[in-house]
Amino acid sequence: MKQNPVVNNSPELQDSIYETKRRLAQRPFPDFISLRQHVSVSFEFFPPTSIELENKLWSCVAQLAPLRPRFVSVTYGAGGSTRQRTHATVEKILAETLLIPAAHVTCVGAPRDEVDEVVRRYWDSGVRHLVALRGDSAYPARPFISHPQGYQTAAQLVAGIRKIADFEVTVAAYPEIHPDAESQEADLDNLKRKLDAGANRAITQYFFNADDFLRFLDRVRAAGISAPIIPGILPVTNFARVVKFSEKCGATIPVWMRDLFAGLDDAPDIRQLIAATVAIEQCRLLLEQGINEFHFYTLNRAELTQAICHALGLREHPEHSLCELNAPGE
After folding, report:
1. Could you say which DSSP state residue 327 is in?
2. What distance in Å separates the CA atoms of residue 330 and residue 324, rounded to the nearest whole number?
3. Residues marked as catalytic
4. Which of 39, 183, 233, 327 has the greatest number of beta carbons closer than 10 A?
5. For residue 246, what are the CA distances in angstroms to 143, 239, 260?
6. Cα 312 from Cα 270, distance rounded (Å)
7. C-alpha span between 284 and 278 (Å, rounded)
């Protein structure tokens, strides 16, 4: 079995343990059962690229739908590469399930007229919720460059959507600041511009230290932003992949978390248990601080998200099942 090198007595780990003990000692231990009665969730899926992955997606949707999420979002690929698959997935969710789909729309690789047409097509098909994002560069390791005739920022995109129809609009927020932002203040200013342009709420990039989100929320409120800020929760199905992706998006992997996953590269069942424990405790800490809405990045895998939602008090409602959902080829 592979061993991940971790120095158990490192100063960083000892500091992390001390901080955790301090925080736990200060916890008010409220009535967790009572708090769970007010939890709501939403889920993110990504469009499939093959028949096998399509079967996996719809299996995931069918497992999570009875939890009655507030909405489910469907992503674009890098550089807007999955636009047609995103649209097809959203339309199938709308037509064959009781779920409320939210389609991702970005500024990447298209002029305004083309993006506006996509937005109108969503409205005409019955979609009423969009997730408006600037988007990432289509070319890895290269900076984002907007289309010369396109929307230059997410704030411009939100304003453009508002001119077309009365969509519910969600935007992104970054507890540890966006990698392209010059400073925390500049990042907050950008969030405020998106909300001032007409967005209804923001969902955050994933994070693993609850305190990072709570400090960010304090800064948001101090800046005069009152819109809902929903924490994005990433259940860790593959720790090595999460480490690699976090290096690109600026999310911090805490020392204590590296220690928990150390040595589990070839032990998927144990890794799954650790992942569930980490995410449940993260949500519990946030719930105790009054945060009762969570957005889960499912990666089209249902089991971990289902377990976390169960721990949060959500139970399945059979009447919300997807009995009409047909697998490919049926």
Report:
1. P
2. 11
3. 44
4. 233
5. 17, 10, 17
6. 21
7. 10
Enumerate residues 6+ apart whose C-beta is below 8 A from 36: 287, 312, 313
- Whether the CB-CB separation of 103 and 87 falls below 8 Å is answered with yes
CA distance 198 to 283: 28
DSSP 197-254: TT--EEEEEE-S-HHHHHHHHHHHHHTT--S-EEEEE---S-HHHHHHHHHHHT----
Residue 52, token pair as written in the block = 């096998």
The answer as to CATH 3.20.20.220 being correct for domain 11-320 is yes
Contact assessment for residue 300 and residue 44, using Cβ atoms and an 8 Å cutoff: no
**How many Å apart are CA 229 and CA 173, to the nearest integer?**
8
204 beta partners: 173
**Calpha distance 115→130 (Å, rounded):** 12
Nearest to 66 by CA among 277, 287, 302: 302
Closest to 189 (Cα-Cα) out of 165, 169, 206, 173: 173
Q: What is the pLDDT along the chain (330 residues), one digit of tens a residue?
A: 444 444 455 666 666 656 655 555 555 444 555 555 689 999 999 998 888 999 999 999 999 999 999 999 999 865 455 678 898 999 999 999 999 999 999 988 889 999 999 999 999 999 999 999 998 766 666 676 777 888 999 999 999 999 999 999 999 999 999 988 889 999 999 999 999 999 999 999 999 999 999 999 999 999 999 999 999 999 998 999 999 999 888 899 999 999 999 999 889 999 999 999 999 999 999 998 999 999 999 999 999 999 999 999 898 765 555 545 554 544
Q: What is the dihedral of CA 316, 322, 328, 330, to 10 degrees?
A: 130
User: How many CB atoms neighbour CB 181 within 10 A?
Assistant: 16
Structure token pair of residue 105: 């729309």
